[in-house]
Design brief:
globular; GlcN6P_deaminase-like; 57% helix; 101 residues; mainly alpha; NagB/RpiA_transferase-like; Glucosamine-6-phosphate deaminase
């Protein structure tokens, strides 16, 4: 059973069923009835890297302005990939959290 699940996941990854708008106009047309905008990634790791990158960019922008950056952290297992990527960005790329509260 577990083998079948893994095979199914691999087939989904290969099928490229994930939403990828070609430009901002395409995104607007396809999402005009959505209540909340969402981006869909092929893996949790890709999503975590993207979210961590967005957080890192916000931190850096606030640093340039000399402002504090308020970050709300969620609990549970879901955000662990994001936190791991933020740690990696700190250790390997020097992302500073001095202005983060």
């Amino acid at each position: 059973m577990e083998n079948q699940i893994l095979q199914f996941r691999e087939e989904l990854d290969e099928a490229k069923l994930y939403y990828q708008p070609s430009d901002e106009f395409d995104r607007t047309v396809k999402t005009r009835y959505e209540k909340m905008p969402a981006d869909i990634f092929s893996t949790a790791e890709k999503a975590a890297k993207w979210v961590a990158g967005e957080i890192a960019n916000e931190i850096k922008q606030k640093q340039k302005l000399g402002e504090m950056c308020v970050v709300g952290l969620a609990t549970g297992a879901t955000p662990l990939g994001v936190y791991s990527e933020l740690i990696r960005l700190h250790k390997e790329e020097g992302l500073s959290f001095l202005n983060v509260v």
